[in-house]
Design brief:
By secondary structure, this protein is mostly helical. It is 85% helix and 0% strand.
C-alpha cells in the first residue's frame, strides 16, 4: 500500500515537472538551422 502511494506521488511529480518543462519550452523561440549549429558548436567548445 505504501509503495503504491509512493509510486503515485512519484508519477505525479514527474508529470508536473514534464509539464513545466514543456510550458517553458513553448515560450522559448525556435532556432533556425544555422543558429542551432552555432549554439551546439559553442557548447562543445565550452564543454
Amino acid at each position: 500500500m505504501l509503495i503504491s502511494l509512493l509510486e503515485t506521488i512519484a508519477e505525479g511529480i514527474e508529470d508536473y515537472c514534464l509539464n513545466r518543462a514543456m510550458d517553458e519550452a513553448a515560450k522559448t523561440p525556435l532556432l533556425d538551422r544555422e543558429s542551432a549549429l552555432k549554439f551546439l558548436e559553442q557548447d562543445l567548445d565550452e564543454g
